[in-house]
Amino acid sequence: xxxxxxxxxxxxxxxxxxxxxxxxxxxxxxxxxxxxxxxxxxxxxxxxxxxxxxxxxxxxxxxxxxxxxxxxxxxxxxxxxxxxxxxxxxxxxxxxxxxxxxxxxxxxxxxxxxxxxxxxxxxxxxxxxxxxxxxxxxxxxxxxxxxxxxxxxxxxxxxxxxxxxxxxxxxxxxxxxxxxxxxxxxxxxxxxxxxxxxxxxxxxxxxxxxxxxxxxxxxxxxxxxxxxxxxxxxxxxxxxxxxxxxxxxxxxxxxxxxxxxxxxxxxxxxxx
Amino acid sequence: xxxxxxxxxxxxxxxxxxxxxxxxxxxxxxxxxxxxxxxxxxxxxxxxxxxxxxxxxxxxxxxxxxxxxxxxxxxxxxxxxxxxxxxxxxxxxxxxxxxxxxxxxxxxxxxxxxxxxxxxxxxxxxxxxxxxxxxxxxxxxxxxxxxxxxxxxxxxxxxxxxxxxxxxxxxxxxxxxxxxxxxxxxxxxxxxxxxxxxxxxxxxxxxxxxxxxxxxxxxxxxxxxxxxxxxxxxxxxxxxxxxxxxxxxxxxxxxxxxxxxxxxxxxxxxxxxxxxxxxxxxxxxxxxxxxxxxxxxxxxxxxxxxxxxxxxxxxxxxxxxxxxxxxxxxxxxxxxxxxxxxxxxxxxxxxxxxxxxxxxxxxxxxxxxxxxx
Amino acid sequence: xxxxxxxxxxxxxxxxxxxxxxxxxxxxxxxxxxxxxxxxxxxxxxxxxxxxxxxxxxxxxxxxxxxxxxxxxxxxxxxxxxxxxxxxxxxxxxxxxxxxxxxxxxxxxxxxxxxxxxxxxxxxxxxxxxxxxxxxxxxxxxxxxxxxxxxxxxxxxxxxxxxxxxxxxxxxxxxxxxxxxxxxxxxxxxxxxxxxxxxxxxxxxxxxxxxxxxxxxxxxxxxxxxxxxxxxxxxxxxxxxxxxxxxxxxxxxxxxxxxxxxxxxxxxxxxxxxxxxxxxxxxxxxxxxxxxxxxxxxxxxx
Lengths: 272, 373, 302
What we know:
The structure holds three protein chains of three kinds.
Chain A: H1 2-36, H2 53-60, H3 62-95, H4 101-109, H5 116-130, H6 136-160, H7 164-172, H8 177-206, H9 209-214, H10 222-232, H11 237-260, H12 262-265
Chain B: H1 3-14, E1 16-27, E2 30-41, E3 45-49, H2 56-64, E4 71-76, E5 79-80, E6 91-94, H3 106-116, H4 121-134, H5 150-162, E7 168-172, H6 180-197, E8 200-205, H7 208-214, E9 217-222, E10 225-230, H8 232-237, H9 242-247, E11 251-262, E12 265-270, E13 273-278, E14 290-296, E15 300-303, E16 310-319, E17 323-329, E18 337-343, E19 356-361, E20 367-370
Parallel strand pairs in B: 3-8, 3-9, 6-7, 7-8
Antiparallel strand pairs in B: 1-2, 1-4, 4-5, 9-10, 11-12, 11-14, 12-13, 14-20, 15-19, 16-17, 16-19, 17-18
Chain C: H1 26-51, E1 53-55, E2 62-65, H2 68-73, H3 76-109, H4 113-129, H5 131-142, H6 147-154, H7 168-192, H8 196-204, H9 209-220, H10 222-238, H11 241-247, H12 254-264, H13 268-297
Antiparallel strand pairs in C: 1-2
Helix pairs in contact in C: 1-13, 3-4, 3-7, 3-10, 4-7, 5-11, 7-10, 7-11, 8-9, 10-13, 12-13
């Protein structure tokens, strides 16, 4: 039938277009992977000889190691603190009424629309004005502010999906508000909190622009270290590092998708 | 007030497990409960009955402590609790969807209330065994709620609420999620447990047949007001208001006129029939006033003998197993049709669809209210 | 005390759904967040404050009140950077929409769960890689010794490498790649909320797949398109690493300018003025865009 042949043609075209676009998306990752295995020290493509040496160099390079340590420190502190602060505030937004509620919420969500270079400059100026050394504290506070909107949204969505009757049942059985929180609310929110934390940690670890402003030589995070490296050297160790990044991130996300349902978190599941 | 009077009043009070005294509750601009007065006796099963939005669930939530009343006072066992938070009220509650904690086993769910009260583990274990026997659910202690059937979940929910020996048991439409067969047997079981333990129970439902079969007393509500409080029989046979009459049971509404008034009874004329009704439902009973006569389905009969109240055309004969529903179109009915219910199977062959028949009214339990225009 | 509820009303009511009506922990839960908000607000005020103060060369301190920073913005050198930035943002948003829509469509309407997951992970992963890794990968693709040039040379299609690095084209391409995940996610969210029944109704009334798409799916996804383009624009405006590394100083966006001025010459006041002007520009452009798009938004399902 002519109609179904037309539909089949459409399908073929559609699939080809999508494949091409996916190719476009994956292209840099593929290319950088191949370049990372190049034996020669130039940033060239395709590699003539294959070797692991750049991976070894990347892992041993002190700036990268320091960057990793610093980044891990900042990320752990920032995302954990942001989780606690954000979860508590999301709870308050959902359940309580208080003055300036909307105002505080708006301020905390605004980093989503304010460019990171503005945030970074702001904290840099603030630190200078207050005479604070550019140590970890400033970086961590900056990261907390940047990551908080995501934590807030993630926890708020989880709270909205939580049937309030569980907590009412607990109260009716004699649990004080504190014990309701500990024995019922938090355990049931745990998946949402975990994914909120994971999201925050990944974003914080990879954050570059604001970090460039607020970190110093001593506290530079991994992305900043990578940036400094690229500006000076052109060898494939960055490529090797990028490959490791890509592999770890893809694994984490596949894991997150399997357990937490990435589609739901991103709000792209079909509703029927 | 003198000491004796105070003592007398409070002695009277503590006979009642729960009282509402002039309780009003507003949500935004909407009045959900309007100056409610209600007393619930110790050990009774009181049902709050009404359509959705009537305020029955709000009353339940007020007694539970999820809301505070805007005015008025609520007492449990004589003590005022309006300002007391939920977790101090010693209530047991069962929710519509049971609200069993999904992250806990059956045992942990049931024992939750005792853990909150600091009861020691051995004692908790013993009492869980006892209550599981009571609800006939032994052997499932280690399961999670999602592994249980609807009926099993409900038993766990009841067990969880009862194990703490609550002063009041609150049931929020607990059977609406069950299918019909299960519903019937669960209703019987819950009633048995309630009677055995003698626990004061407040039961919310919109299903009037459920209310009639389970309750010791029923409170009929509509639009935030309490319309009538009484035993199931009282509510069914002597509805005080039009709404109650039409909400409970299947009632037919026939148009008639008052012939005369004799003391507490008015005589309503419909066709050739004369039906005595109590005057309590009538506004200003005077001869020739138009009234609506409420007649239960079982009180109408098809007849050829006088006096004939009205005539109509049979529009449907529906076999219901133990009885037959006969739908008759008649101009005498306020809605243009009436429903007769006849026991037995024989009647299905007696008449045909399309036949015109005459009807007689058995005046027992008939009530009348002023005609609505 | 910002978070206080007055003592005379100990019970506060929320929506008419049963909630435990006291508010325990209110202070504990709200204070830390309030402090964060306060700190952030102070930082942003610092930027605002510095933008209207004079620059003292060689010092981190700023001078007295002046509007000279904003006046300096009007110089052609800087004005051009603003215009370039806006233009790059538009181009990026536009192409990201064109490229992202088919992907979002496939993501939402494919029945095969494995393919859905694969597409989702492929789309979302770049989002989490961070600007530097993504931009760096593009350097290898776009460079004179990179993937494109090597392939074209090998195939004999060109004689000498085509310059992609340090051009607007290169920057926009990389930016599209960076913005694609966000656009796809927002479009997919909108598409997934379109009731399948609308398409079925169109088909039952005789519309072929293309006409169904044009007359039903596309209009109903309009809110998603508006949201996606708006977000893409705002995100691109904030981009830094990509124009910095691929633009290499020859293609400058506002972000790069702020960095150069703030870091290289420590001219905080001017950098701050750039930030403020940039924010104003973004908000005005977005507001204009939403105003234009309002009739489109009304077409969406509700």
